[in-house]
Design brief:
CATH superfamily of the largest domain: Medium-chain alcohol dehydrogenases, catalytic domain
Number of helices: 9
CATH class of the largest domain: Alpha Beta
Radius of gyration: 19 Å
Oligomer: single chain
Order of helices and strands: EEEHEEEEEHHEHEHEEHEHEHEHE
């Protein structure tokens, strides 16, 4: 099979499109014929070696940890899926990834694909949706009637977070650049703040939850937007617990794991029309290096998707 792999850590030029052996199936694995994968920042961070101390990979390594495709074969212990099923997943990041024509994924990490969208659209959803769900609901405890500030509302995570928050009946404020304000509004945001035009912290007040997808100075300024006992949830930099205590507020940091239960609930929301994918760019598997460069530039609207196989 064809796969986009690296043989050593480094820049995007390290990515090679080459023949790779078919995945070996464990008893609890499902072999997915991948139709599409998506590119996330964690992909190029792994490629560059930023996570090598946390996750020791064997080389060569197939990158990518989002997939949508069709079940080709199942392990002897698999009971929930059969060949021909349309599925999607955010697989275990410690295993070989999804920039390939086939990928082996544990049954427990797979959900049935939403029926109303394409594989390309479905592949854009797992990692960002699990991330947004865990940040807003599991860590943040966001519920109906509460107020949430979501940073980078036009981004891959932010665009889904807005829609998930609205599905729970929250009041959503999001930040975006001038050019993307209308798009973010169309996703369901009640208020959109142009972060290029002034200090967002002077406009966003009394938030129950702040979802930080940016870090740094944005995170630091976000404390002022929270009400007492409100929570700042970040996926970039771990918020200061000392500052949270000093201000009478709370903090949380989210680094996700595979979660098929969330993907099953998400598929229902997609098929009800409450969540829609936002695709910013599409590349062939052969152009995986270009896709990484686009992701690293950091200004993408929505998600980047790779075509890995035939529908």
């Amino acid at each position: 099979m064809k796969a986009a792999r690296i043989h050593a850590y480094g820049d995007a030029n390290r990515i090679q499109i080459e023949d790779a052996p078919m995945p070996v199936l464990n008893d609890d694995d499902v072999l997915i014929r991948a139709v599409a994968a998506s590119v996330n920042p964690v992909d190029w961070k792994i490629r560059a070696g930023y996570l090598k101390e946390m996750i020791p990979y064997a080389m060569p390594l197939t990158l990518g940890w989002d997939v949508s495709g069709v079940v080709e074969r199942v392990g002897t212990a698999v009971t929930a899926f059969k060949p021909g099923d349309a599925v999607y997943s955010r697989p275990d990041i410690a295993r070989n990834g999804t920039y390939a024509e086939y990928v082996a994924v544990r049954e427990s990490e797979i959900a049935f694909k939403p029926s109303t969208i394409s594989h390309v659209e479905a592949a854009s959803l797992p990692l960002v949706s699990i991330t947004a769900w865990e940040a807003l609901f599991t860590a943040g405890g966001l519920s109906q009637g509460q107020r949430v500030l979501i940073h980078a509302g036009a981004g891959g995570v932010g665009s889904i977070a807005i829609q998930l928050a609205k599905s729970r009946g929250a009041h959503v404020t999001a930040t975006a650049s001038t050019a993307k304000m209308a798009l973010v509004k169309s996703l369901g945001a009640d208020e959109v703040i142009d972060y290029t035009a002034g200090d967002f912290a002077k406009q966003a007040k009394d938030m129950d939850v702040v979802f930080d997808t940016v870090g740094g100075a944005v995170q630091a300024a976000s404390w002022a937007t929270l009400r007492p006992n409100g929570i700042l949830v970040s996926i970039t930099d771990r918020p200061s617990e000392d500052r949270a205590r000093a201000e009478g507020k709370r903090s949380a940091f989210v680094f996700i794991q595979p979660n098929a239960a969330i993907l099953t609930q998400l598929a229902g929301l997609v098929d009800l029309g409450q969540v829609r994918p936002l695709i910013g760019a599409e590349f062939s598997l052969n152009d995986a290096a270009r896709a990484h460069l686009a992701s690293e530039a950091g200004r993408m609207t929505g998600k980047i998707v790779l075509y890995t196989g035939q529908p």
